[in-house]
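Appendix B, Record 12. Input sequence as logged:
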Amino acid sequence: MVEPRKRNLENGKNTQGQKKNSMSKRQEQAPRIVTTWELSNMIFEILIVPILTIGFHLVCNEKQCSFTSLPDLSQYKSLSDLFQLESFLYFLAYVVVLVIFGCLPLGGEKIRVKDYTYNLNGFNSTLCIILTMLVCESSGVPVSNYICEHLLDMVVSVLIFQVSLAVFLYIFSFNAREDELNPAEIGTPFISAFYNGRQINPRLFNTVDIKFTFVKIYTSTMIITDISMVLKTLNLTTNTGLNLNNINWNSLSSNSTIVVLAIAHCSYFLSHLYYESRTLSNYFAHSEGMGYNLLMANSFRWSGLIAQTRYIIEHKIHYPNWQLACLLAVYLFGQYVYNVTNGQKDHLRRYPDSPESKRMKRIPTSQGKDILCDGWWGVVRQPNITADILVHLTWLRFGITAPPVLSIMSFFYYFIARAVVSQRDCKMKYGLAWQKYCRKVKYVLVPFVY
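Logged structural output:
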């Protein structure tokens, strides 16, 4: 195995004096005013998102999956029909394994930010999980069959885990230092702090970064669940073990819709894990609070995407091959632009003086960071978000008339909102340099539109 490369995003370590200055500035900062409307919206989402997360799988089953028909809840006569302790314990064991893998030298980059070293082996950890699953299948342990047959149990288990983690993080944050708190939530009401997160990067024993570990859990769970459903659909797994002899062109062509959708889902999330280090230089890593909103947004997304896959399988949805080819081409283009734009920005942030960075067109700022206006960043101001929207547009086609599509549609709102917030923050942060960039690159997401 290749020895992981060690990098350092920060030049030098923060001194104790710098930390005290940072703390004093935060203490002097006036608490953010949270309006009644914002609080009402937070309370509404805290209550409604868990219902929708489970609702996708109650509304969609083998008999029905429609906006016009009410869900048939007659089959859920007791709590045990919605939740089984066994499934929850299996999921907890899976989480523990991923946490352990995250601490092991499984390859990947090691990057030091201030006084913390990130062991970025999410991609390799997920490959180990997939390999372990296939070995279990080959040994007669029907992992994928269990996941497919207990899908609702797993959704409820993930939901309980996410809510419990949100409560734990809120309580845990009261043991954090002042400089570890989320500046935007200091002095805000309980609902706002719980919803948005009182910490940005909570860590256990200064060894496990909970935010990055959560991303590994979320993305790996999505991949494993999709693989399990495809294996069962293609009859590659039974209660007696893995049967790869059933792989043939007729089987793949007759199930081409679900195969293409699974490829799009899995490659998207695997790509995020493969380029995990790039996350360290974006808004998610250094500014987004680790709270209920972040946890449940991803749970809502995961549940919706899994319900989408389930709908395609159970209702035997088939699209013409020419449509699938077009959708796959658009997806690959969106994924390519997403990876390229994030790679450019990450390289400039890490190595501003490298020959490659010096060749990029940039606008200097008074903060010492340059605004990238090269390549796709010279076409629109947020090309990475545009690319992400393009990827999700291809997913929107799969079961567009079924309720799970609401999960994907909600992310269009999220992407646009994130772009608006990013524009506002950059304007406040970079001032005249940002105005110059806006005159050069006039559109935020789509040329001639917005």
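The longest strand covers residues 109-113.
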